Amino acid sequence: AQTFGFTFWKYALSGLSSSLLDLLLFSVFCDIFDVGSGSSFYVVYATAAARIISATYNYLVNYYLVFRSRRSKGGTLGRYVLLAAWQMICSAGLVTLFVMLLHPADELFVKLPIDLLLFLFNYRIQKKYVY
After folding, report:
1. What is the pLDDT of residues 86-107, one digit of tens each?
2. How many CB atoms lie within 10 A of CB 46?
3. Which of 103, 114, 123, 129 has a 20 to 30 A CA-CA distance from 79?
């Protein structure tokens, strides 16, 4: 139980730092991609660009520091990419939907709770299947 606790807290710190990086990049990319077209689909592009960068960082931290994986990088990377793609699709789709429905002043208020829920699901999946 103690190892589980320590691993989870390392995962939480890794996730927090990855999320901060993701949110910062998401905000920057929203400003870049929102060119005043009236469409909310810039959120999808901003989510994808930010997530690719933050997921690369997160994979490396989780592989080396959190789970200290002994599995091959090729196998773990493939499983991680599938999970990250699923998470990115869920995040982008749900954030876009709620931005379209609620028209919030700031997309981050929609993105934060959605990504928190996805984070909780991903711990178990990464621990059991990825690393």
Report:
1. 988 998 899 999 999 998 888 8
2. 24
3. 114
Instruction: Please name the amino acid found at residue 92.
Output: A
Distances (CA, A) of 80 to 31, 46, 55, 101, 131: 28, 20, 9, 31, 8
Per-residue tens of pLDDT for the chain, all 131 residues: 455 688 899 999 999 999 899 999 999 999 999 887 778 888 889 988 998 999 899 999 999 999 999 999 889 999 999 998 898 899 889 999 999 999 888 888 998 899 889 988 888 899 999 99
The amino acid at 2? Q
The pair of structure tokens assigned to 21 is 């990086």
Closest to 91 measured CA to CA, from 16, 12, 23: 23
64 to each of 1, 4, 91, how far by Cα in Å? 21, 17, 26
**Per the structure block, which two tokens stand in for 87?**
């998470």
Q: How far apart are CA 60 and CA 84, in angstroms?
A: 13
* Side-chain half-sphere CA neighbours of 130 within 13 A: 23
Q: What is the largest CA-CA distance in the chain?
A: 52
